[in-house]
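Let us work through a complete example step by step.
Step 1: write down the sequence.
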Amino acid sequence: MTISDRVRIKDVRVLSDGWTTLKNTTFEYRRANGEWQTQHRETYERDNAAAVLPYNRARRTVILVRQFRLAAFIRGYDDLMIEAAAGVLDDASPEVRIRAEAEEETGYRLHHVHKVFEAFMSPGSVTEKLHFFVAEYEPEMRVSDGGGLAHEGEDIEVLELSIDEALARIADGRIIDAKAIMLLQYAALHMFR
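Step 2: predict the structure and record it as tokens.
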């Protein structure tokens, strides 16, 4: 039996359709004991996205970005968020989109991106799946200042940190973005051993 044999969608209502779509779904779910249970859940329908961690093995450095995030601010985070460069796929392949996003946000033109894993970041309520990449960079690959696109509301600072400094910022709470944490831990295990 597959999971689709245990779920019957009964009703879907759109509650909001702005930057993201918020839906309320009524469904029946067959529990492990065989009983059907009616449940209601709200989901944010978000397109899939990709994130990348540019790294330089010889210099032991990584490129991250820093920007304002309203949701974190509302939750009391009173600083700019240090993150891995990322963006929504917009119907492009993850590899194509993350190269373009990296150049927009960091100013680095990455030649070869390597996919390392995929993950749902908040599967209890958000449909978005992220594709995670690493990519080697050299200083001469910088083609602009980066900073993102002003017409999209982006005002991004580019950070070049040593891997040790980046990991220390996770430990002391200065990096709390899940994308950055996951990619930095991957890099520590696989790229900077």
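Step 3: interpret the result. Residues 51 and 86 are 4 Å apart (CA to CA).
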